[in-house]
Write a structure and sequence with these properties.
Elements: H1 3-14, H2 17-28, H3 31-40, E1 46-52, H4 58-65, E2 69-75, H5 79-86, H6 91-94, E3 97-99, E4 108-114, H7 122-133, E5 136-147, H8 159-176, H9 186-192, E6 196-203, E7 208-214
Parallel strand pairs: 1-2, 1-4, 2-3, 4-5
Antiparallel strand pairs: 5-7, 6-7
C-alpha cells in the first residue's frame, strides 16, 4: 500500500473526526469500549506498544489506564484524530507517547489494530500484517479489534448486521475514500500468516471481536 493511499484515507477520516466517537457510542453504547478493555486486560505489561490507526485515542487511553506498556507509539494518518488524541492526555502522559508514521525500524512487544484493517481489501491486509510482523519482537502479540462476519468464528449472521455493514462501507468509501467494499476474513488471513490466536472475545454474537495473536505458541 503506497503512501498516497494512506494520506487520502487519513484526510478522509479528518472529515468525520468530530463525530466519529459519538456515532460509535450512539450505535453500540459502551460495549465496544468494554470489549477493548477486556482484551487489553489479558496482556502483561511490556516495554513498547504500537497502535496503528487509533482514531481519536480511545484505545490508547484504555491501554495506558491498564498499563500494558511503558511507552507507546501512535500511528494515525488523520491529523484531526491526532489532535483529539493529544487532548485526552496530561503532559506527563504525553511524554510516554510518540506520535509518528515512521516506525518501520522499531521493534514492538504489542501491535494493536483497532478498527483499521476493515478499511482495506484482503491483499492489502496481508501486506500490512507481513510488514508489521517484521516490527514484532519475538514472542510479541498482535491485537485485532474489529467487526467480524466470518463463519466459524462465533459469528451469527442476520439481515440487520449485513445491512449495517453494507451501509458503513458505502458511507466510509464515499466520505473517507477507503479502498475496501466488504469485510475481509481477518481470522483466516492472520492464521495463514502463521499467527496463532491465543485469546478471542466477542460481543453481539461474534459480530465485533477482539483477538490476541502470537507469533509462537505460549509455553
Amino acid at each position: 500500500m503506497n503512501q498516497t493511499r494512506k494520506e487520502i484515507i487519513g484526510k478522509g477520516f479528518d472529515r468525520v473526526a468530530v463525530f466519529y466517537d459519538f456515532v460509535l457510542k450512539l450505535t453500540f453504547g459502551t460495549r465496544v469500549e468494554q470489549l477493548e478493555r477486556s482484551v487489553l486486560k489479558t496482556l502483561n505489561t511490556t516495554d513498547h506498544a504500537l497502535i496503528v490507526g487509533g482514531g481519536s485515542g480511545r484505545t490508547l487511553h484504555i491501554a495506558m489506564e491498564l498499563n500494558i506498556a511503558n511507552r507507546y507509539t501512535y500511528a494515525e494518518y488523520a491529523p484531526k484524530m491526532v489532535d483529539l488524541t493529544r487532548k485526552r492526555f496530561t503532559k506527563s502522559e504525553l511524554s510516554r507517547i510518540t506520535f509518528t508514521l515512521d516506525y518501520q525500524d522499531e521493534q514492538f512487544d504489542v501491535i494493536i489494530f483497532p478498527f483499521v484493517l476493515d478499511c482495506f481489501p484482503s491483499d492489502e491486509i496481508i501486506e500490512l500484517i507481513q510488514t508489521h510482523k517484521k516490527c514484532l519482537k519475538k514472542g510479541g502479540s498482535i491485537v485485532l479489534i474489529d467487526f467480524n462476519q466470518e463463519e466459524g468464528y462465533d459469528y451469527q449472521p442476520s439481515v440487520l448486521k449485513a445491512s449495517f455493514i453494507k451501509l458503513l462501507y458505502s458511507f466510509f468509501k464515499s466520505a473517507c475514500g477507503i479502498p475496501a467494499s466488504k469485510l475481509a476474513p481477518f481470522n483466516s488471513i492472520l492464521t495463514n500468516e502463521q499467527l496463532i490466536c491465543v485469546n478471542r472475545l466477542s460481543i453481539l454474537n461474534g459480530w465485533v471481536q477482539a483477538s490476541v495473536w502470537n507469533d509462537e505458541p505460549i509455553t
